[in-house]
Amino acid sequence: MNVRKIMTRLNAATARYDVARGGVPEITAQDVAGALALVGDPLARDVFCCLWWPDSTALNRERVLKALRDRIWSEFSRRHRAAQLARLDLHIAEGELAARRSPGEHDRREFDTRHAAWERAHRQLWPGTMATYPQLLRAVLTEFVTPRHCATCKGRGAVAGSNGPRVCAACDGRGEKSQSKAWRANALGMTEANFRQSWEPVYEWTYSLVSDLESTAAAQLTRALGAHDERRYAATA
Predict the structure, then answer these.
(1) Beta carbons of 206 and 137 less than 8 angstroms apart
(2) Of 12, 93, 97, 166, whose CB count within 10 A is highest?
(3) Which residues share a beta bridge with 228?
(4) Distance CA 41, CA 47 (A)
């Protein structure tokens, strides 16, 4: 069951209320709406709808973007605070080393450890060009809905299994794969070299954030609709 494609049934023009072969009703718009209400994480649900039901009048897209930006700002701040603390620890280690008339091996190892920690934290800093972050978030969301068929499942989102079709593990059932670095750089209006050097870690982190939220909602929606189908089939048996 590809719940991402099923979301189109919420659109008025494509809503169906007919009966499938065998007298078993198909999943309707009401079924999908009810299953969405069972998604436990509100942000995961909103991100899923933002991607796969963008015409929803109930969806406040700017509110969703703001919530995602807040996650990005939080991670940005965490990295900068970590670098500042590491720098402070390094300064203290420098002072301790200078205070020793004859620094021992332990003192030098301590300084080297603090210095390595600062370098590591400094490498993990994100760029300070803040205007790029909202643009990057929009690019990530666009990438999710920009077709690039998965080579494993040929865009179907499912592959053959011993007990019938199963979700494609290569694309997590989306039927699509990530875009290239050149595509991502172009979406941000920069060269691929600049993207790789400065922005690729930020993009990957943001992509993982959106992917985790989207996958969480998709899994819960699939379970909810699956349970609904089981009850419906039992009622018609």
Answers:
(1) yes
(2) 93
(3) none
(4) 10
Q: In this structure, which amino acid lies at residue 204?
A: E
State how far the Cα of 53 lies from the Cα of 60, in Å rounded to an integer: 12
Query: What is the residue-level pLDDT of the chain in tens, covering all 237 positions?
Result: 678 878 777 765 544 544 444 444 577 778 887 888 888 889 999 999 889 887 776 678 899 999 999 999 999 999 999 999 999 999 999 998 888 888 888 888 999 999 999 999 999 999 999 999 999 999 999 998 887 888 889 888 889 888 888 888 888 777 778 899 999 999 999 999 999 999 999 999 999 999 999 999 998 988 888 855 444 434 433
Collect contacts of 36-45 with beta carbons under 8 A, ≥24 apart: 36/221, 38/220, 38/221, 38/224, 39/216, 39/217, 39/220, 39/221, 39/224, 40/220, 41/213, 41/216, 41/217, 43/67, 43/68, 43/213, 44/213, 44/214, 44/216, 44/217, 44/220, 45/217
Q: What angle do CA 13, 14, 20 make, to 5 degrees?
A: 145
* Number of residues in the chain: 237
H-state helical runs in the chain: 3-6, 29-36, 42-52, 61-99, 105-123, 132-145, 181-187, 192-194, 200-236
Residues 47 and 26 sit within 8 Å (Cβ to Cβ): no
Hey, what amino acid is at 193? A
**Alpha carbon distance 94, 115 (integer Å):** 9
Nearest to 125 by CA among 53, 202, 34: 202
Comparing C-alpha atoms, which of 179, 175, 177 is closest to residue 155?
175
In angstroms, the CA 105 to CA 218 distance is: 55
